[in-house]
Specification:
10 helices; mainly alpha; about 85% helix
Length: about 250
């Protein structure tokens, strides 16, 4: 295992252990353990999203290929994190209360298929971006098309359930603190949203740099690179669904 991957694996173990400790302290009473759970979940979300994964690459590629406002970056970044956490939370609750042990096996088997479907759709988004880049030389951008693109990026980057949130939610349910588990999942999604938005901001700032504004040819090249990053990401998910992770 590469050193960076080992470091992230150890970090995940550390945060899971810390969350477990403070969740168990809740029965002793007091507000402090609950605050610790929320704080740790937020930091866990920030670090969880820093590791290698397709979410940041998709957002960065999208904002290299598209001009956009900073508020769009934050909106997409936090919506992706919210969808990522919510899908995990819903699946965990359904698995625990309805399907129990069988659900875990089904979800593991479906994970690779879901990743490949997502990869195929991401390739289509990349092709759509290339079409719009070429079309933008002749016509003004279609705002309705932009809205659909943004929604597609949010859903495709966030739809694969977050394993960290699933761990938190499952543990919260088993010890009878599901409400705090929901808030912890929300705190983790906010942390992930911060990291994803920062990745998008770097791409957005580069795409809007004064150099690119002065040199239209290079701006088109950068936009095309962004689109091909998105396509390459989709192909990677199609070919290696079992070794990629959402963020």
């Amino acid at each position: 295992m590469p050193p960076i991957a080992l470091w992230f694996a150890q970090a995940n173990q550390f945060f899971n252990a810390q969350l477990s400790t403070h969740f168990r302290s809740l029965d002793e009473g007091g507000l402090l353990p609950a605050l610790w759970v929320l704080g740790i979940a937020f930091v866990y979300g920030v670090l969880h999203a820093i590791g290698p994964g397709h979410g940041k690459a998709l957002v960065a590629g999208y904002f290299l290929a598209n001009d956009g406002k900073k508020k769009d970056v934050f909106k997409i970044g936090f919506l992706i994190a919210l969808v990522h956490a919510s899908s995990a939370l819903i699946l965990t609750i359904v698995a625990y209360y309805i399907l129990e042990k069988t659900a875990s096996k089904i979800l593991r088997e479906m994970g690779g298929t879901l990743t490949q479907v997502t990869g195929g759709l991401i390739v289509l988004i990349g092709i759509w971006l290339i079409y719009e880049i070429i079309a933008s030389k002749m016509t003004s951008p279609n705002q309705n098309g932009k809205k659909v693109q943004k929604l597609s990026v949010v859903l495709l980057a966030g739809i694969i359930p977050c394993p960290g949130v699933m761990t938190i939610a499952f543990f919260a349910i088993t010890i009878g603190h599901i409400l705090l588990g929901v808030f912890a999942a929300l705190a983790m999604s906010i942390g992930m949203g911060v990291t994803i938005s920062v990745a998008g901001l770097f791409a957005n700032k580069f795409q809007q740099s004064s150099f690119l504004k002065r040199h239209f040819k290079w701006l088109m090249i950068v936009r095309m690179i962004g689109a091909f990053i998105v396509i390459g990401l989709g192909i990677l998910l199609l070919m290696t669904p079992s070794v990629t992770k959402p963020f």
